[in-house]
Amino acid sequence: MSSLIVRTRRSFSTHWYAWAMVLPVVIVLGVLVGYPLGRGIYLSFTDANEANMGRTIGDFSVPSTYTFVGLENYWNILSGKEGSFYPRLTWTILWTLSCVVLHYGIGLGLAMLLNRRMRGRSLYRVLLVLPWAVPAFVAAFAWKLMYNTDNGVLNALLGKVGVAPVDWLGDPFVQKLSVIAVNTWLGVPFMMVAILGGLQSIPRELHEAAEIDGATPWQRFVHVTLPGLRPVSSTIVLLGTIWTFNMFPIIYLVIGQAGGTESEILVTYAYRLAFQGVRDYAGSAAYGIVILSLLLVFSVVYRGMLNRQEAAK
Amino acid sequence: MRKGMTAAAIAGVLALTATACGGDGGGSGDSSGRKAATDPQSVSGSITWWDTSNEAEGPTYDKLVAAFQKEYPKIKVNRTSVSFDQAEQKFKTAAQNGKGAPDVIRTDVGWSAGFANLGYLQPLDGTPALDNAADFLPGPMSTAKWKDETVGVPQVTDTLALLYNKEVFAKAGITKPPATWDEFIATAKTIKAKTGVTGTQLNPEGYFSLPFLYGEGADMLDVDGKKITVNSAGAVKGMETALKLAASDVALKPASTDGYVAAQTSFKDGKIAMVINGPWSVSDDYTGKAFKNKDNLGIANIPAGPSGTAAAPIGGHNYSVYRGSKNKDASYLFVKFMASAQSQELTAKEINTLPTRKSAYTAAVTADPAKKAFQQALSVAKSRPVIPGVGDLFVAFDQHYVKVLRGDAAPKEGLDALAKEWNSKLLKDYSIG
Description:
The complex is a heterodimer of chains A (313) and B (433).
Chain A: H1 2-14, H2 16-44, E1 55-57, E2 60-62, H3 72-78, H4 85-114, H5 121-133, H6 136-147, H7 153-160, H8 172-200, H9 204-212, H10 217-245, H11 248-255, H12 266-275, H13 281-312
Antiparallel strand pairs in A: 1-2
Chain B: H1 2-24, H2 26-29, H3 34-38, E1 45-51, H4 58-71, E2 75-81, H5 84-97, E3 104-108, H6 112-117, H7 138-143, E4 145-146, E5 149-150, E6 153-159, E7 161-165, H8 166-171, H9 181-195, E8 198-201, H10 206-214, E9 221-222, E10 227-228, H11 233-247, E11 251-252, H12 259-268, E12 272-277, H13 282-286, E13 297-300, E14 312-321, H14 328-338, H15 341-351, E15 354-355, H16 363-366, H17 369-378, E16 381-382, H18 393-406, H19 411-425, E17 431-432
């Protein structure tokens, strides 16, 4: 213990300037991340809501009357008593999985195409990156218009070939397919750009050597390209998973409030808890912490898996 | 014992300081409105007003604000346009923080009780804001009360009525609008058979299903008995009527997204002969090709259920003053001015709103047949339950109503599920049934 103090003191006296440099960042992070997180964790152990939080407004003043309830909020969520956690978790996982698989698959395909030498390559790149440059809420509203049952362009096209109009955002199942399609459109460009970078960092000699050894294109893809992409892939899949798991605007804006709660993912539901009716601060805080924990566990397991694979090689 | 007394004493002192603080801001934060009542011209300062009206209505309110500032040159009013969809949450956030909240806000009648329950609204009884209270129609006035206090001044009111296409009716040989839901369905059938025009299209929002429930003598809640009655036998019957209509071949299928716009567009274009809608839609109807000739638009009271009762919900807006406002005198004067009979008459004439004051239904206002018809429709209108967050009930209501109309859930099943959802989330202290 004392050696630790001594070591800290020594490191402080030699590296004081490093500490000084880091200090502003630590303070800013503490204010912007640490405090809200701590407050959120605290609230999740209480029964705080808008009505029992203390407030003074003009001549009207009430003291706080919320109490500490321990793990009750978490118990309500995890025991299924609250009713909507497990069905929503299942859909959130399905949503994340299908989106990430589609993002990665299509992104990889497009990157492979763009990695060839061809005329107008930079133009294609710009066009394919375009969806990424569009703010998510603009994309959501544009797609919502296209999905409109009576006046949307999709049903107009279907009508031209004699297919009956589809209720894109009304039917619970089609609704889910619709939002997955929007998010795929939105997420592919990022994957494509990242994978393209990865592809270009694979030394050309590896491919040439494999070709001389008589490897088929498929064999070269599996044994040269994919392993070469691993560092990039592992990072973007992790990022993609976290982003998609918490992809708020697409679900919230495309489906809207009235379309049905079955297609809501965990974060949009937590938002509704926090901003509907008498605001349930405690319940939504507990939801937030549960979501955070799920993602933390996922990241740790995923990194562990990758490290083991790396070690096995 | 001693300890308890000390605690009580401290609490008392704290309470005193708190109230003293409230009074301290007294010069400006005084909520009695004495200054505004006795010497209105001496009131000065600036106030912010959150206006949730739409773009088309804006210029009329700008005109009113200008007239107010001319009358009270020392007061400056900042009219801030806030989107109706976001105003409720935005106000709640600002009011709770005590920062950025406006002095005066235009609230939906469904929000008043919720805001007042959290202490965000200034009670207006005895202040100059509530001018000649007896002049207000009882329906709109009831939406501005919370417990025994008046927390808003009714600005505009509205209700639902049956709007129909007179030309199509004449072609089908129908001389008068249907008075019951059964007649409504029969009329739709005749029109389809004789003219080929579809009868109607339902708007799949819970609010628009209320006439079906009211027609059976049912309601969403029994507030006094603390009961959820939305799944009562009568309500189920009403819902069955709505479903029968929606699923028949004389009605277009309700659109589950933007259902309001879909029904309104069909009606304007002459694709359907009848629609249930409110006075706010009349100006929009006139822009459609079916109503180029304004006389073609017929307006009748909402059809009745088999019990003979007909009723539609009351909607509308109130003006409220934020309890933390620093300039209450100016706020009171502004609310008084905006809710005056003259102001209401002007908005009625310019943007087709329905006044909340009896005296604002002047000859000039009722000369317009649409306004006269809606004034008539108000006579059978019914106030929604006054509870905090009544508007939030409709989020779940909309979802279950759509399911019923789509045929994904039977009426009884859908309403049972709705009652259960309200009970588990928003109305925990209510019983079902």
